[in-house]
Each structure stands twice: as C-alpha cells, then as structure tokens.
Amino acid sequence: MPELPETETIARDLHREVAGRRILGAHVDRPDVLREVTADELEGRTQGVEIARAWRRAKLVVLDLGSGDRLVVQPRFTGALLLDAGDLPEHERRYSTLHLRLDDGRALHYRDIRRLGTVALMGPERWARYSGALGVEPLDPAFSAAHLSDLLRGSRQAVKKVLMDQRLVVGVGNIYANEALWRAGVDPSREARSLSAEEAAGLHDAVVDVLTESIAARGTSFRDYRDASGNPGAFEARLAAYGRGGLPCRRCGARLIETHAVDGRTTVFCARCQS
Predict the structure, then answer these.
(1) 75 part of the active site
(2) Which of 126, 193, 265, 272 is catalytic?
(3) Which domains does the chain have, with CATH numbers?
C-alpha cells in the first residue's frame, strides 16, 4: 500500500496542481529515504527546474523535470505526497522527510511516518533501465487476457503470487489481488498454470475492473493512504474480500477464510465459491 489506484490518484492530482510549476528549492529533513542521490545532489539538481509532468508507473509516482531528470517516489506503506499552502496539519508536517518549495508559494512534502518508502532522482538512461525491468501495466492494452494466460501458464507458483509479481504485472498488491481473485472465483493458492484460458480471461477482467473502479473511488484507505490534498480514498466500503476475514461472503454467504499460507501475506477467500 499504496497500490496502483492510490498512486494513480496521487499522480493525477499532482499533475493537475504542479505541472508547469518551478521548484525554487528543495530541503531534505530525513536523508534515509533517498536512493541514488545525496541530499546535496537532490537540492542542486532540482533548484530552478520546472515540473513538466506527474504520472504513475507501477506503484511509483513520477515527476518529470524539465532538466530530463525524474523524481521517482515509492510510497510503500506510510508514504504520501502532500501539497501544502501553509495549512498542512502539524501531525502531517511532523513526518515530512523532504519538501520542494514551488514558485506559487506552496510546498510539496513527501511525508512518511515509518520511512519505508523511497525517493530517487534518476537521469533518462537510469530510468529506462529501471522501468524496463518492470512488468506490464494492467490498464494498458498490452495486458490482454491472452497475455495474462501466457504468464499464468508458465508458472507453478500460486496464482495470487503471480499477480503480485511486479516483474510480470505491475501495480497489483495484496488488496487488489485478493479482490480480483474473489471476483473471478479463483482460489488464490491454485497453481497458476492450472487456470484454463477461460478462467484467465475472467481473472483478467476482474483485475481491470477492480483497479478501474478503485481509481474512480480515489483508492482504498485503511490507515495511512491519503491523496495529494490529504483526503482518504473511498473504495474500502466496496471491498468484498480484503479485510473481511471471518465475515459472510457477499456472493454466497459462507464465512470468508483468512490465512497467511500464500507467500506469508494476508489472504482472504471463500472456500465455497473460489475454486
């Protein structure tokens, strides 16, 4: 967390708010979140530079800078990019690890309570290598039912683990893997290669649908996720599996099972209608 819908929401908000703005200065309070750049380098390479675009790749929020560099933020569990017009609450400001001063008087903070997320500054060649090692975007046309079927057919791993492998398909984490598998009626622990082409097509549609619907609801907030304005997402109320272990299945009424048997992550499923 955040996964694809949450980082997509943040990136869209930021693009609307900061594209075309110039960075007057950067200040790093917690350099342990930095990767591939020192605090002095980050401050020097961003000063006076325009933010050309904000967008998402996988679970990353990417700021394209006019210099050709890319500021790459991986929020992980408690990270958030928050705009501050002087009214950012103190409990958020307290956990700011770095902030960019913008030419319109606002600041863009990277807040991270547990400091498990990262901020990197990459040149074009480094970004190309980094992005090239990631899998297909599940909302791109390249992620077809046939493509997913091929990925599944080549793996003996649990189907849930394959869905969450960022080298194969990006942006799908524990929340949306649970949800997509529930929607598709597929047992998360099933060997991926055992799914038929028809079952793979159903899972493909479930992945695309749940991600699209969550983006429309501005993501899922359990504890720490906030959009760029500090507001929570609204998709939690629509979750059918994740976070509902022990509750009735919304499809058949059977009690949902919660286990950590699949890759050590919390997995919630219905033994009656997921096979």
Answers:
(1) no
(2) 265
(3) 4-132 (3.20.190.10), 145-269 (1.10.8.50)
Query: Does the active-site annotation cover 161?
Result: no
* Whether the predicted pLDDT of 1 surpasses 70: no
Q: Is 141 a catalytic residue?
A: no
Residues 230-262 have pLDDT tens digits of 777 789 999 999 999 999 999 999 999 999 999
pLDDT tens readout for residues 52-89: 999 999 999 999 999 999 999 999 988 999 999 999 99
Rg of the chain over all Cα atoms, to the nearest angstrom: 20
Predicted TM-score (pTM) of the model is 0.93
Burial class (CB in 10 A: 0-12, 13-18, 19+), 233: buried
21 is catalytic: no
Cβ count within 10 A of residue 267:
24
- Choose the catalytic residue: 45, 59, 106, 111: 59
Amino acid present at 210: V
